[in-house]
């Protein structure tokens, strides 16, 4: 079997899909992250795809090593291109052998995967109503953005707003629901300590990215301050980026993104490294259906995954949602806050290619929000 072509599709609201074709008629799908550099990712994917034409799609590790080990490695653009192409190769291989990808990675470690749902939006509001809605739909865990913009040192009024929102969920739902609180890298070290301390009485499931990943040395200080599990990892690009977190020992939960960290096998390697350090995993997956399907394949065979992000109804999905591009919609059927392990070959996903092509023809314009603090300085989104 040989790779004969790669097509790249820009899909609203903010997704990039790729389809890898072979001379035996078996094709595979992958997903890339658009971020704020859609044109760079799309054109880079087309350029890098030329290097795999004529290759055996089963030689995934060899192809991955070649694509990753350029002089400049990793990063958000090359990282997501390699990830998208890699998961498409696994889709091909699983289909060729008639088994789901997890079967090729050692087999199942579980029967179902726990999932959580987003509430509250980019600038969080109405979180109590959102949490109650998810609880009534069977979810037992939600995640919310903690705050709006926060300066290096900001007013306690903003801290109180966060606490009041979390408190409103506890008042509405009691202890029936777990709450993940995403600081989203918006909080700097001085305020991160204050905010984390204030949240302790509400027993969060975790706090996510309490500081930006480049300030990883601060994780140790925060971990010493509060007993809440700390999660991070969505902005890291390979197992080498995770090494310092594992050896530091301050992170309790890692969140690699299959569309950024190098793909399916790389994510499996990262999770296995984390397991050796007794670290849990809650993979990052706020994007489209292909990325979620690929992530579930890794979840199925990774025992330290305790919960999975999913993005149905997330505030970014304007105009289209995940099921709009999926023919076998039952793959993402949730029951009591869980999703079943996929059983169909490859990624287990039947992509509605006709719909993908139609929407892709409209082109994609997606830009991350640009925020400023009260004094005009740049704020983290």
UniProtKB/TrEMBL annotation:
Cited SUPFAM superfamilies: Enolase C-terminal domain-like, Enolase N-terminal domain-like
EC code(s) of this entry: 4.2.1.6
Top enzyme category: lyase
UniProt-listed Pfam families: MR_MLE_C (PF13378), MR_MLE_N (PF02746)
InterPro entries according to UniProt: DgoD-like, Enolase-like_C_sf, Enolase-like_N, Enolase_C-like, Galactonate_deHydtase, Mandel_Rmase/mucon_lact_enz_CS, Mandelate_racemase_C, Mandelate_racemase_N_dom
Chain ranges of the Mandelate racemase/muconate lactonizing enzyme C-terminal domain: 124-229
Gene3D superfamilies in UniProt: Enolase-like C-terminal domain, Enolase-like, N-terminal domain
Keyword tags: Lyase, Magnesium, Metal-binding
Listed GO MF terms: galactonate dehydratase activity
NCBIfam families: PRK14017.1
PANTHER family referenced in this protein's UniProt entry, alphabetically: D-GALACTONATE DEHYDRATASE, D-GALACTONATE DEHYDRATASE-RELATED
Protein name (database record): Galactonate dehydratase
């Amino acid at each position: 079997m040989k790779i004969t072509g790669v097509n790249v599709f820009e899909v609203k609201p903010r997704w990039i899909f790729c389809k890898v074709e072979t001379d035996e008629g078996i094709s595979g799908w992958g997903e890339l992250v658009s971020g704020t550099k859609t044109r760079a990712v799309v054109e880079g994917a087309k350029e890098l795809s030329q290097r795999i034409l004529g290759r055996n799609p089963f030689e995934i590790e060899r192809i991955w090593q070649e694509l990753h080990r350029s002089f400049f490695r990793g990063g958000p653009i090359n990282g997501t291109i390699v990830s998208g192409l890699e998961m498409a190769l696994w889709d091909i291989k699983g289909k060729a052998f008639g088994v789901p990808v997890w079967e090729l990675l050692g087999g199942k470690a579980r029967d179902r995967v726990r999932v959580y749902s987003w509430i509250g939006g980019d600038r969080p509001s109405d979180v109590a109503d959102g949490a109650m809605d998810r609880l009534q739909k069977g979810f037992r865990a939600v995640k919310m953005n903690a705050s709006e913009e926060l300066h290096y040192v900001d007013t306690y009024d903003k801290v109180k707003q966060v606490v009041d929102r979390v408190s409103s969920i506890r008042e509405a739902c009691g202890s029936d629901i777990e709450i993940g609180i995403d600081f989203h890298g918006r909080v700097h070290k001085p305020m991160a300590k204050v905010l984390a301390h204030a949240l302790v009485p509400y027993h969060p499931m975790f706090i996510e990215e309490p500081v930006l990943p480049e300030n990883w040395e601060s994780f140790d200080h925060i971990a010493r301050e509060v007993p809440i599990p700390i999660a991070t990892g969505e902005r890291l690009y390979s197992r080498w980026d995770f090494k310092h977190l594992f050896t530091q020992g301050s992170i309790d939960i890692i969140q690699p993104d299959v569309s950024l960290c190098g793909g399916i096998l790389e994510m499996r390697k990262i999770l296995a490294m984390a397991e050796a350090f007794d670290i849990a995993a809650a993979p990052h997956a706020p994007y489209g259906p292909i990325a979620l399907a690929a992530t579930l394949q890794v979840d199925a065979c990774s025992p330290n995954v305790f919960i999975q992000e999913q993005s149905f109804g997330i505030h970014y999905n304007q105009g289209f949602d995940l099921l709009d591009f999926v023919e076998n919609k039952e793959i993402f059927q949730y029951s009591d806050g869980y999703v079943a392990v996929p059983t169909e070959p490859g990624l287990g996903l039947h992509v509605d290619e006709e719909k993908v092509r139609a929407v892709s023809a409209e082109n994609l314009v997606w830009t991350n929000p640009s925020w400023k603090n009260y004094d005009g300085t740049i704020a983290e989104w």
